[in-house]
Specification:
4 strands, HTH_HxlR, two-stranded parallel sheet, WH-like_DNA-bd_sf, WH_DNA-bd_sf, alpha+beta, transcription, single chain, globular
């Protein structure tokens, strides 16, 4: 059974999905190369050459994606200099980038379950204890929420953004 759409959302023909948060997220991180750069940042890669080498994409694509992720606020540039070399930038996760971790882990978890066959290649564990880590929907008090139990309603505090100059 699907989620329960509440209030004015209950009539699917009466509303549009404009201003959808998923669309905004996909516009920013919805490409293979962007998600792989984020994966590598979570694994500790910080340098341009490391991203290009580990992901196996062209330097042009790496440069474009790093610029986009930096401008969007998911990564920040930090200068470094190897001995005898010139100053360069490395890329580190911001709080915004770290906040995306459950989404990326959730996507990998889904692929582990449905696309990897018998055993996934990696395990996600709490470093200190070795306990498995999973991404799930939970209420504020910790109860697990399944799709059948999920309600979706309009946020009474949300306000439609005003069109910018030149938009209709």
């Amino acid at each position: 059974m699907p989620a329960v759409l509440e209030g004015p959302l209950a009539d699917l023909s009466a509303w549009k999905t404009d201003h959808c948060s998923l669309v905004k997220a996909l516009e920013l991180v919805g490409t293979r190369s962007t998600l792989l750069i984020l994966r590598e940042a979570y694994y500790g890669t910080t340098r341009f050459s490391g991203f290009a080498r580990r992901i196996g994409i062209t330097e042009t694509v790496v440069a474009r994606q790093l610029r986009q992720l930096t401008e969007a606020g998911l990564l920040a540039r930090r200068p470094y200099r190897d001995e005898g070399g010139r100053t360069r930038d490395e890329y580190v996760l911001t709080d915004m980038g770290r906040d995306l971790l459950p989404v990326v882990i959730g996507l990998m978890q889904w692929a582990d379950k449905h696309l990897q066959g018998r055993q996934p290649p990696l395990q996600y564990v709490e470093h200190g204890t070795g306990d498995p880590v999973t991404v799930e929907l939970r209420t504020g008090d910790g109860r697990k929420v399944e799709l059948d139990d999920l309600g979706i309603r309009l946020n009474p505090d949300w306000r439609r953004p005003r069109p910018q100059t030149g938009e209709h």
